[in-house]
Amino acid sequence: MTDILGGQKRTVYCGLVDKSFVGQQISVMGWVNRRRDLGSLIFLQVRDRTGLLQVVFDDAVEKDVAEKASQLKLEYVIAVTGTVRMRTEGNVNPDMKTGEVELVGEQLKILSIADTPPFSIGDEKAGEMLRLKYRYLDLRRESLQNNLITRSKICHVVRNYFDENGFIEVETPFLGKSTPEGARDYLVPSRVHPGDFYALPQSPQMYKQLLMIGGIDRYYQIAKCFRDEDLRANRQPEFTQIDLEMSFVDNEEDVMSIAEGMVKRVFSEIKGVDLGDFPKMTYSVAMEKYGSDKPDLRFGMEICEIGNVMKDSGFVVFDNCLNANGFVKGIVLKGHASDLSRKDLDKLVEFVKTYKAKGLAWYGLTQDGVKSSFAKNLSQEKQDALVAHLGLEVGDIALIVADTNYETTVVSLGALRCELASKFNLIPKDTYAVTWIVDFPLFEYSEEESRWTAKHHPFTSPKNEDLPYIKSEPGRCRAKAYDLVINGDEMGGGSMRIYNRDVQKLMFEAIGLSDEQINDRFGFFVNAFNYGTPPHGGLSFGLDRLVMVLCGTDNIKETIAFPKIQNASCLMCGAPADVDQKQLDDLAIGIIKND
Ligand code: ASP
Q1: Measured in angstroms, how far is the CA atom of residue 204 from the centroid of ligand 1?
Q2: Which of 96, 77, 98 is closest to 2 using CA atoms?
Q3: I need a surface site. Which of 105, 133, 141, 308 has the fewest CB within 10 A?
Q4: Ligand 1 pocket: which of 179, 181, 246 to mutate (most atoms <8 Å of CB)?
Q5: How far is the CA of 144 from the centre of ligand 1 (A)?
Q6: DSSP 8-state class, residue 32
Q7: 181 pLDDT above the threshold of 70
Q8: Rounded to whole angstroms, how far apart are CA atoms 400 and 305?
Q9: How far apart are the first and last CA of the chain?
Q10: H or E stretch including 543?
Q11: CATH 3.30.1360.30-classified regions of the chain
């Protein structure tokens, strides 16, 4: 039989009880985390959101209560009233927040009993699948609770910051029309309009721009977004953005400085870290030096140009590549030339091939001399020139890619750079390397669709000076777009928007949308621009990612209370699941089963 709470109130959380409570009578409530039965003494650990408290029941003092305590099992929910005392010297537990004190139990209520849990609470070694199935039990884990607390605090800081800066929090609909981010939509069938569908927002992009046209001036929202994509690591089908938009700005700097202020405030209030002013790097420099538009700047190992010193080298791979106007570039791994065995190097060759590189050449200096896949093809002079150009010292090894495609060259080396940094522990812990990436290309060419597409989204404004080239040379146009990168992860991005309908039309035409398609997909939106549109721009941050960085976890599920797994299902509730025939009939939906 369980007891009722009967109006009893908790006087203090378990984890907050310290020396200052000694001698006081308190009531705590929580879960039985541990029980040790020493005959006449029963020791319990009671757990709540704030931590653990040791409770002692003494047979000699309160016989009935002690007897009741002997029935307790793990995860029973209890309320204990008693008096706080210091622990005896030998019993002090320095690893426990409340380890100096204990509560002598005088009254015990069993509020709820519990079956044996399928894994022990807090055991991160229990399989993740099992923990996700019983997520409500996994949620009792201290680290997960702390992450959710941090997440809540971040949102609080964000809201305060925007409020102080004149932004209004506005909610935008979930049930809307397809948005322009370009991923697959989650669709919701309409009962009232059989055969028609709402699309869940991939972001509030169009709504927030319409809010600017509507005169809201400065908007923000902590918004749920939905994208029905095959999930790569650390992606969730539903995720949260800190989304903002502001009017009467026409320069990237205006939005970037507001956003930068927010990120700085969050780091300072949550971590006590001053991030300083954020540097800016252009997209082309990021690609050239790091082979990525989200470079991890916590370590060096930048990509070097080698083609100039390897001209007419005598090594046919380089020569052919350079004669075909290709690229020869490399990175230098310092001090580890001897740590890469032939087998390791073969693995690295396979690694760069996954990034479309045709191969990987290496040139290292070890105590025993040159270690290289191509030195035998080079004259001593050329080798000396290479060593001097790269500043190679004994222990260093250069890893080189030659390819006729620029992207393949830098992207494969950029990925190799990160792979080696993690293999050789070159990434310092607890540092934050922050940078803006600016001057993105406006378009990217889709080989698949044989057409130019918008790199960001089609409402992104071109740089004023590139406007004349939208039609004639799309590849040359740069965007007024910016991304914020922390530790090699894209934290957020945005752009100044097109607010002139003629430019918007040009943009749509450049990505091959016909008038009919424009009308059908974005008609209501484009039409709004006819009624007075302020210059505006905005940005959104991935909240889940920000929480990951601030909590120091590399698993996005550790930042979300009820996450989904890779195949977009929820192991706890079983979604997605089939529905009643009646529900399908209401929606005029028939299911075709593929067996
Ligand atoms: N809506 C954009 C995105 O989700 C961000 C922006 O341009 O504000 O990528």
Answers
A1: 8
A2: 77
A3: 308
A4: 181
A5: 28
A6: E
A7: no
A8: 10
A9: 50
A10: helix 543-551
A11: 299-423
Average of pLDDT values for 196-221? 97
User: What is the CA(582)–ligand 1 centre distance, in A?
Assistant: 38
Atom of ligand 1 nearest to the CA of 459: 7
Q: What is the percent of the chain where pLDDT is above 90?
A: 91
C-alpha distances out from residue 393 to 266, 362, 374, 413, Å: 42, 14, 18, 21
pTM for the structure as a whole: 0.94
Ligand 1 centroid, distance to 539 Cα (angstroms): 6
203 alpha carbon to ligand 1 midpoint, in Å?
7
Tokens of 314: 């005598």
Q: What is the pLDDT of residues 360-375, one digit of tens each?
A: 999 999 999 999 999 9
Alpha-carbon span 456 to 530, nearest angstrom: 23
Compute, in angstroms, the gap from residue 241 CA to the centroid of ligand 1: 9
CATH of region 299-423, choose from 3.40.50.150, 3.30.1360.30, 3.90.110.10, 3.90.420.10: 3.30.1360.30
Looking at domain 14-112, does it have CATH number 3.50.50.60?
no
Segments of the chain assigned to CATH 2.40.50.140: 14-112
Give residue-wise pLDDT tens across range 294-332.
999 999 999 999 999 999 999 999 999 999 999 999 999
Number of C-beta neighbours around residue 163 at 10 A = 12
Segment 129-153 mean pLDDT: 97
What is the CB neighbour count within 10 angstroms for residue 303?
A: 22
Q: Is 330 in the pocket of ligand 1 (CB under 6 A)?
A: no
CB-based contact 62:106 (threshold 8 Å):
yes
Q: Is the CB of 538 under 6 A from ligand 1?
A: yes
Instruction: Evaluate: CB of 181 within 6 angstroms of ligand 1.
Output: yes
When mean pLDDT is compared across 70-84, 166-180, 198-212, 571-585, the lowest value belongs to 166-180
Pick from 206, 483, 540 the residue to mutate for probing ligand 1's pocket: most ligand atoms within 8 Å of its CB. Answer: 540
Contacts of 191 (CB under 8 A, 6+ apart): 586, 587
234 pLDDT more than 80: yes
What amino acid occupies position 445?
A: Y
Q: From atom 7 of ligand 1, which residue's Cα is the shortest distance away?
A: 494
